[in-house]
Amino acid sequence: MTPSVSSLSDTAMVLAAGKGTRMRDLASERPKPLVEIRGTPLIDGVLDRLSTAGIPKAVVNVHRFADMLRDHLASRREPEITISDESDRLLDTGGGVARALTRFEGRPFFVLNADVLWLDGRANTLSSLARRWSDEEMDALLLMCFAVGAIGYEGLGDFTMADDGRLSRREEQWVAPFVFSGIQILHPRLFDAAPGGVFSLNRLWDKAESEGRLFGLIHEGAWMHVGTPEGVSAAEDVLSGF
């Protein structure tokens, strides 16, 4: 494991249990994480990046077309994959991570959306995020991208960021400069007072924010929002130059 991630759990969480409804026809007969960008399924791009950064294991949750995704992942050798099956009950982002919490052995861990697509800047993105992590200061560290210039993104942004990296939610009807990339590091203690069953990670972010323990790191490279067919097309246009 590389020095940049040595303080983290050797297991990451990949959130792949979404319904993929905004992908429309592209995900009508397959799970969203198997939608391809220039011939590569989205989830394979994420898992390849984890392996490159030195994370040898990943828990992947599945729901819609669970068997199809499970069969696809069975062909991979790196990272070593454990399936968390939510076929019967979708647990949302927080509930999905909470179910796998024992896998991280009390250490901070990566959580990535299975449909994240990014290009590194000057350094490996995941390694940079790991280097920024501070057990003393943080319960959550989110990789943030500038909303302006984010490929395929048309929202109002998610957060503002203080000079020390602390994040604050966008106020209603305001515009915020940063959008969450779908990549983060969380500490298991963030889940100590979490509700059981179905809940969103947003609830835990709010808790961390209220305690001054929600931080962000600005991504230096390109980031692509690929939640829709239009986003897929835009990402393919960008990547055609590489």
Q: Mind explaining what this structure looks like?
A:
This protein is an alpha/beta fold. Helix 2 links the parallel strand 4 and strand 5. The radius of gyration is 17 Å and the shape is globular. It has one domain: Alpha-Beta Complex (Spore Coat Polysaccharide Biosynthesis Protein SpsA, Chain A). Helices cover 23% and strands 24% of the residues. The chain is built from 6 helices and 13 strands. Helix 3 crosses helix 5. The strands form 4 sheets. It has a 7-stranded mixed β-sheet with strand order 5-4-1-6-11-8-12, sandwiched between helices.
What is the domain total for the residues?
1
Name of the top-level CATH class: Alpha Beta
Low-confidence segments, given as residue ranges, are: none
Strand numbers in spatial order across the main sheet: 5-4-1-6-11-8-12
Count of alpha and pi helical runs: 6
CATH architecture: Alpha-Beta Complex
| Number of beta-strand segments | 13
The helix/strand series, from N terminus to C terminus, equals EEEHEHEHEEHEEEEHEEH
Distance between the termini: 28 Å
The fraction of residues in strands falls at 15-25%
Tell me which oligomeric state these chains represent.
single chain
Defining traits:
242 residues, alpha/beta, Spore Coat Polysaccharide Biosynthesis Protein SpsA, Chain A, two-stranded antiparallel sheet, 6 helices, globular
